[in-house]
Amino acid sequence: MMIFTVPTAAGMATPGAVTTWDPVMVVVMAWGPGMMRERRGYQQPPSEACQKFLNETAGLRKELYMKRYDYYEGMNDPETKPETLSKMEKEVLDLRQKIRDKNPSSCWY
User: Fold this and answer.
1) Measured distance CA(13)–CA(7) in Å, rounded
2) Which residue has the higher pLDDT, 30 or 17?
3) Range with lowest mean pLDDT among 14-28, 67-81, 86-100
4) CA distances from 52 to 55, 57, 104 (A)
5) Of the residues 39, 47, 57, 61, which has the fewest C-beta atoms closer than 10 A?
6) How many Cα neighbours within 13 Å face the side chain of 100?
């Protein structure tokens, strides 16, 4: 974690504040070396069971991503009916469950 003190014009940023420069503390959480060390798939190749899972579910995962996209597009379209969104949401949840059922406990996808 890095902490920076950044001068800001308080009169411009905050209504009713003084017009002098006020220091503001900004906390930045940045990715540094070793931050992802424990995450599987980055430091070591996937296990045989995990690779088999990834190969078997490639089509399901692609279908899941496409259905998620359609669902979010439907949410942003004011003409989409709530019943249609409910149906799409159920399809997304069913696909996620199918993928989870095939997932060995040691595989992160």
Assistant:
1) 11
2) 30
3) 14-28
4) 5, 9, 10
5) 39
6) 6
pLDDT-derived band at 108 (thresholds 50, 70, 90) equals confident
Query: CB–CB of 45/66 below 8 Å?
Result: no
Q: What percent of the chain has pLDDT over 70?
A: 59
CA separation for the pair 15, 18 (Å, rounded): 9
Q: Please provide the size of the chain in residues.
A: 109
Structure tokens at 13: 């940023």
The amino acid occupying position 74 is G
Q: How far is CA 31 from the centre of its chain?
A: 16
Give residue 18's pLDDT. Answer: 46
CA–CA gap between residue 23 and residue 74 (Å, rounded): 44
